[in-house]
Amino acid sequence: MSCCDLAAAGQLGKAGIMASDCEPALNQAESRNPTLERYLGALREAKSDSEQFAALLLVTKAVKAGDIDAKTRRRIFDAVGFTFPNRLLTSKEAPDGCPDHVLRALGVALLACFCSDPELASHPQVLNKIPILSTFLTARGDPDDAARRSMIDDTYQCLTAVAGTPRGPRHLIAGGTVSALCQAYLGHGYGFDQALALLVGLLAAAETQCWKEAEPDLLAVLRGLSEDFQRAEDASKFELCQLLPLFLPPTTVPPECHRDLQAGLARILGSKLSSWQRNPALKLAARLAHACGSDWIPVGSSGSKFLALLVNLACVEVRLALEETGTEVKEDVVTACYALMELGIQECTRCEQSLLKEPQKVQLVSIMKEAIGAVIHYLLQVGPEKQKEPFVFASVRILGAWLAEETSSLRKEVCQLLPFLVRYAKTLYEEAEEANDISQQVANLAISPTTPGPSWPGDALRLLLPGWCHLTVEDGPREILIKEGAPSLLCKYFLQQWELTSPGHDTSVLPDSVEIGLQTCCHIFLNLVVTAPGLIKRDACFTSLMNTLMTSLPSLVQQQGRLLLAANVATLGLLMARLLSTSPALQGTPASRGFFAAAILFLSQSHVARATPGSDQAVLALSPDYEGIWADLQELWFLGMQAFTGCVPLLPWLAPAALRSRWPQELLQLLGSVSPNSVKPEMVAAYQGVLVELARANRLCREAMRLQAGEETASHYRMAALEQCLSEP
């Protein structure tokens, strides 16, 4: 059999390619071509490869391209089966005078014909050919060889057909197809555009798995696309804008891509564009902002101008979309603009190494204020039927980011919106599972869910906590929050989130946002303790909260790396104990004793005596665990000392318990071992407050302090109140 005959037989695959253009009924095909049945019979009865070749040639001559329908194609497969194509694909010897790939080309052509049938495309005998087919994409050969090009086209047809089946992408990824497609695209040989199209489909279907299997190759494609994007001067730059987000990795965007991506975006966004040209650029910028923060933007004048331009454009887009009632909102674009506004908020509030200069910050804050006003206007129009829509969630998110940093402006509008925000947060809290799904849908609007960077919290309440923390300090907003039931909701939320950190749960896998949310809740409760003590006394939810704090602190103070949360819990519990001192739960119960023992541990371990070179006397210094976070911790520590002092006269059992812990003795011992000049006045005041109340409350405490040279120490530190107290019987 000649090479010409083999090439003719190979046209059977091309007939399969055209099958979708014309699918006549089988009986019509047979009536027009009665010879086909005889040739199919010959194909079924063929005993050798030569006979099968001959029969295939006859079938090819009997069936014109475009005349094969699905049923006829299936009958050809039933006659040929997989055994013959399998041998062709693995054959290493070609007939005399033929190129070495001719038999493999015929095998691929047959598979391409069969893969036009979705059922056959998912057949195990096709799936196990994926590794072989993938190697054909990168095989070297004459780029002008028509037969080789035809073979490559058939290979892409096979792989594309497999990708279209339910489990096809997973099989292609496991078979090494992603790496082969990357190499084929980067080689820019024949069919490289088909490689890119198939890569896009696989990334859209199984992004995480693709990156896991072929990260180096995909990064190489990203670098190539970024370079093309930076160089593009024609309409291809807009196409690349839509393509590039799919190739941003779930781990980190390589720094070497930052310059090209930023330069390409700067050129696009700095021009006058229609919305269809500008919107993909805004969405790409949002993906980069979400993944890298501002790291992808260069430092200096050009970078600051570019960032200001980004935020400006985003704010204009948000206002245009949300201020006009009845306007159709492009939710994916506006959500991308929210991400860029969030980047602007972060940079405007950054004190060190900000890309923006002070005048730019002032200007951008003013512009963002107007955009946030539009967001509030939009949210005020949202009815109950829309509360579960992802775009509403995204709008609440950007408002939460703004309120976390700025509550003084738009105060009237914010107060007007607060009832809606409380109801919205309550609705999503009560349907937490759906809220989680909403968060995922928000990510899908404009930002890939696997993109690195700050995660999108799965509940609306966590988005609002920082802003509510600021608002509970102010009389007007606080009264609205209390009236709408926010404190009760926050207590329930805190208890729910606390469960995630309790024994039996793996806290190592918890996102940082859970612990940060708990700390912020504590700050809100601290504000309420100070500004609305009556609420703490009368609302039963705070009794439940107090019980949780008491049972949780003993184990929390023992856990490494959680000192800041322990400080929040201890201080909040001590302040609440002063208000709830008549509660039965605080009358020397095991839980209350355990809580105060843990609180003493937190307060007593903050400072140690540290020797100094060249001096006989040690100095008072922070203990290692406290030293690194003292800036965040010190206010809580001083407040905790003050609250403990206030609890002593209210709880008669507390002074004896403190004595048994040896805290007053060890505190005096510490003060006696260090230079008084090393102890700051505020520390002296805090220590004296505790010692005086313990001495006044209990005779045994006074005696223990005297035995520890308390009067002498009080004299050295000029603690007049303590000195007087210890001098009394």
TrEMBL record:
This is Neurochondrin. Belongs to the neurochondrin family. One of its GO terms (cellular component) is cytosol. It comes from Peromyscus maniculatus bairdii (Prairie deer mouse). InterPro entries: ARM-type_fold, Neurochondrin. GO terms for biological process: bone resorption; neuron projection development; regulation of neuronal synaptic plasticity; regulation of postsynaptic neurotransmitter receptor internalization. The gene is Ncdn.
